[in-house]
Amino acid sequence: MFAASILNLHLLPDVTSVLVFIVTFLLIYWSTRRHPGIPPGPGRWPIIGNLGSLAGPDKLKVFRDLRRKYGDVFALYFGSELTVFLNGYDAIKDAFLKQGRHFSFRPENDFAKRYIVSDLVFGNGSEWKSKRLYIMNAFRDICFTRNGAVLEQIVHEELDLLIEHLTQIKEPFCPRKTMSLSFASVVFNILHGKRPERDDKRFLWYLDTVDKGFHMFLSSQVRHYCFPWFDKLPGDLLRLRYARDMSASHIDYFEEVFKEREATALKGSRDCLLDFFLSEDSPVTRDEIWKCHEDLMAAGSETSATTLTWMILFLALNPDVQDKLHAEITRKVGKEVPTISDRSEIPYVEAVILETLRIGSNVPLGVPHFVKEDVSFRGFLIPKGTTVIANLSSTHHDSSVFHDPFAFRPERFLDESGRVLQPSEQVIPFSMGQRSCLGETIARIELFLYVTRIVQNVQFKLPAGCKRPTLNGVFGLTYRPEDYNVDIEKRN
């Protein structure tokens, strides 16, 4: 009996080891298993999921390689969070148009609710729909009365200042911040009925914090998915406190400009979007105005600014395209100020814009979608609560659709005569479906007027003796080119 007890005591460490092994095995198995029926993807690592699969300096190439290996629909885990990626025009169209009622939601996970305060871009349900419709109608009434004369006036007022600035530059110049400020001023004017002052330091501060805040959100989101217990630790490891402080400072800034408009606007006026927000029929409450304002300022300015930053780079790298563009503008418009009605008369301008939107792909992964229930899609299961991302760049850089996809060839969008713009449904920089960009029409008009006026007045060249710029992109609020310099010459 005593010997048996001694033997059992001797075996206890082995039993403990076995239990530890089993528990460890189960934890690893549970944290690395891929849910049955979901789209294919690489093997999953403990804690980090598939983050290792995204290693590499060129993230869009990484996604191209993943598509080549796993197909148009594949799934990755960010920590424990499942994300499904849609690639190619057909897959994106099937989801956002044919099955739009399943894919038209925004993420509702805990992190998104705590970090994101906006409900114009990230909201769901009937309230979001009523706000979107109201703002689209407001844009129509503000910008497109008298065949768009108001929008033209706002844009040309800003372009007068921009061209005056560009023609005075004598040294190699990086256009990114100047273009961001210019387009942001246009959006500010639509929202407030006037442009910001030229040296408004608070406005410049706001633009700077928006881009930094987006960078921070992306990195904090990844940390949350991999280490959800970070927010239980001392400090601000997920930068949630910083995000709240930044939001509070933005609220203070917007309150200043709101009160100024309230004090000066005539009762019942509807000359700018803020007037609409303050109207009795507005679905946006007084406390929510700054949230919608923040969305519209960020999304409405930076995407167009990034497009123009890409375009200046492409024109400097392709002087033959720039010469042809200037010749077409001169032939149709001369030195007159272009109007919206000129768009149909200069198809080459539209072709250059389309080609820039295609290659630049300034929001390559769009804004995340979300499914609220299990969805069967192309033979796969997309479980309830999954984030869905449309890789828009996969349509723009698809060699089966666009021959030599990274060559800048605006002519691909024109007929043989070069005078008729061809359908371009597979260029979808503003996404598609219920969640497509609500400012698309304004953005396209802005780009036409900016490109035409700028090329009328200045020419871009690569600085002599400088290293040739690359076409590498940088992820931020948008996907922009690496900073580069160009020489600017005033045209006669």
TrEMBL record:
It comes from the Eukaryota. Coiled coil: none annotated. It holds the Pfam family p450. It is a peripheral membrane protein. PROSITE patterns: CYTOCHROME_P450 (PS00086). The chain crosses the membrane at residues 12-30. Keywords: Endoplasmic reticulum, Heme, Iron, Membrane, Metal-binding, Microsome, Monooxygenase, Oxidoreductase, Transmembrane, Transmembrane helix. Heme binds at C437. Its cofactor is heme. It is found in: Endoplasmic reticulum membrane; Microsome membrane. GO terms for cellular component: endoplasmic reticulum membrane. One of its GO terms (molecular function) is oxidoreductase activity, acting on paired donors, with incorporation or reduction of molecular oxygen. PANTHER family: CYTOCHROME P450 508A4-RELATED (PTHR24300). Belongs to the cytochrome P450 family. This is Cytochrome P450. It comes from Dreissena polymorpha.
